[in-house]
Design brief:
Structural class: alpha/beta
Shape: globular
Order of helices and strands: EHHEHEHEHHHE
Distance between the termini: 33 Å
Number of strands: 5
């Protein structure tokens, strides 16, 4: 069974048009594969856009809607975690602002410009990728990343409440540490740092991108029709742990 084997999954997204930002690798790519496997129109057409540019984001959604006749699902997944985002004592203003632009401002822009298309359909689902760090603190800080994901959480909650009676659901998907190229690169030169994180996960492993994509497919589908403004944690139990098994 592969992620693109259309017989492997329930066909919950047939006829839906989905837009996934950050869809070229990692969690975003897994989302594209899972959505396509469930029948959505996604992953077969690439549009170049700077997600921190209001004009380019607006043009992106207009182009997709024009080509496919509308939009049903938006997964706002683009994000960065650069090495110069560290402790607040070491992180400069430029690094702080760069992470905020890509991780939070882009979500604001994608929601802002996608919502009119979803509202015109009378229903839809927006899934904003936040993180388990939005609900926890860490001594090994990535201060701007953490703050940006907290912002995504609050923004998603507010939009989920505001547009619930107009048929559009908005949820924050909060993955735990996932085996993506981003995480692999982050820990490749520092195995001790990786081990320090791993010990706090009750399941004893990092997640897989396909596991996060499965949660996104649920949130995109009508199976989650009564789920909005939620903090949807898919983190191997890390946010619920006090101590973990040896």
């Amino acid at each position: 069974m592969t992620a693109t084997d259309n017989t492997a999954y329930a066909r919950r997204l047939v006829g839906r048009v989905a837009v996934v930002t950050g869809g070229a690798s990692g969690i975003g790519r897994a989302m594209c594969e899972r959505f396509a496997a469930e029948g959505a129109s996604v992953g077969g057409w690439f549009v170049r856009a700077d997600v921190t540019s209001s004009d380019e984001v607006e043009a992106l959604y207009g182009e997709v809607a024009g080509r496919f006749g509308g939009i049903d699902v938006c997964c706002n997944n683009a994000g960065i975690s650069p090495p110069d985002d560290d402790s607040i004592l070491d992180t400069g203003l430029e690094a702080w602002e760069r992470v905020q632009r890509v991780n939070l401002t882009s979500v604001y822009l994608c929601c802002k410009h996608a919502l009119p298309h979803l509202l015109s359909r009378g229903k839809g689902s927006i899934i904003n990728t936040a993180s388990f760090v939005a609900v926890m603190g860490a001594a090994t800080s990535q201060i701007s990343y953490t703050a940006s994901k907290g912002g995504v959480l609050a923004l998603s909650r507010e939009l989920g409440v505001q547009f619930a009676r107009r048929g559009v659901r908005v949820n924050a998907l909060c993955p735990g540490p996932v085996s993506t190229p981003l995480l692999t690169e982050l820990f490749a030169s520092d195995p001790e740092r990786a081990a320090r994180r791993l010990v706090h996960i009750p399941m004893g492993r990092f997640g897989e991108a396909s596991e996060i994509a499965a949660a996104a497919a649920f949130l995109a589908s009508d199976d989650s029709s009564f789920v909005t403004a939620s903090t949807f944690l898919v983190d191997g139990g890390i946010s619920g742990a006090y101590v973990t098994p040896l």
